[in-house]
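Internal tracking record. Fields below are filled automatically when a chain is submitted to the structure queue. Please do not edit lines marked as system-generated. If the sequence contains nonstandard residues, flag them in the REMARKS field before resubmitting.
Queue: standard
Priority: normal
Entity type: single polypeptide chain
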Amino acid sequence: MNGNSEARGVDYARVFNQAIDRLHAEGRYRVFIDILRNKGAYPNARCFAGHNGPKPVTVWCSNDYLAMGQHPKVIAAMEEALHDVGAGSGGTRNIGGNTHYHVDLEAELADLHGKDAALLFTSGYVSNDATLSTMGKILPGCIIFSDELNHASMIAGIRNSGCEKRVFRHNDLAHLEELLAAADPAAPKLIAFESVYSMEGDVAPIRAICDLADQYNALTYLDEVHAVGMYGARGGGIAERDAQAHRLTIIEGTLGKAFGVMGGYIAADQMIVDVIRSYAPGFIFTTSLSPVLVAGVLASVRHLKASSVERDGQQAAAAMLKAMFADAGLPVMIGDTHIVPLMVGDPVKAKKISDILLAEYGVYVQPINYPTVPRGTERLRFTPGPAHTEAMMRELTQALVEIWGRLELRKAA
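SYSTEM-GENERATED OUTPUT FOLLOWS
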């Protein structure tokens, strides 16, 4: 058999079909809803599922936690920028893609976290991947200590750094110290962790981790993507709330969740930011954020630095929904944050509940399955915000109780 006939023997379509079939068999195949949000009426949206025309939907799973993507100041700033400078940035930051909007936003973000400088990326995923991989390569022999529940983007960055990795049990300080103590004292060390873990709804012991970092001469990298805008007097995250921001080497955040637009960033001292700016391929070789987006984020960050109304409303809504779920006997995972996870424990059932909620009740919440969460811990993740009313929450709770009974699902103990 010659080389060409061997090549013809590879059934590429079969391999791809099998990959998709595995997802269907495990109940993990993802379906994206065809939806448009109604400006000025969040969390209301319209759905085009089945191409039967729009139908009313209430969104319960958006990461636009504070509805800043709908805020009049944000929309006005984006419209002004669009008509002032046009749509796109024109290139990478190195070649034509740097604007005054970018410079202003980086200054605002550095100030938000009490750092010397900040650096914008096209997404939170890219900021984690680019920064962690570059830090590992810049520090010869670096060992990165990573919480086992860290974001996929952090894991990718650590893997791409090519350096040694030590995974510590989630929020387990004793295990982290055990790993630090066992490492070469002369090796550079970086502890990478999150503040709010979005699928569990719990918070890292930032102060204690910083204490260990001081003791073992380690740098710290804190992912605050589910906390920036949400916590602290000015929205600087859990690190600001706990007065620990000054102790952290690098703080990473997103502009696509509480700030309501798009993008990611890091804040650190000037030298570290300059190193990442100068060496990270994920920053150097990609078109910069559109100035229209940056203008919107700039308005959002400035507003949330001065206003706690949105944060207070969101926290009140989360507390109310948790209480309603618990009172109804639903298996809510109680935590101290704005995340309201409802445990299902089965991927097929989680999707079934989601499908019924959308089709019969006009409720949009996506099932969270592996690999986002471990197998057997599949769940629905609700993110009530300041615009979700008590009436909406009661209707949602009643719908869930009915579905739980219909599907004969286990309720809370």
